Amino acid sequence: MNEQAEVAEYASSLQIATRFGISRATVYRLLNDGKIEAVKVGGATRFIVASVERYYASLPRVGGSVAA
Length: 68
What we know:
single chain
């Protein structure tokens, strides 16, 4: 068997905020609104990066058309 299991990437609220250019308060607001996902590891909250990426991908696009 040569298949590898997909491994989720996790990040702290600060890492998510920095990577996506938002505040930590916004990260937790998105979590509380059910728009992104996280897990608890002991006392730490770790955000599932793929869920944040999916959220961003679902946002409406703005601006003009993209040149080919």
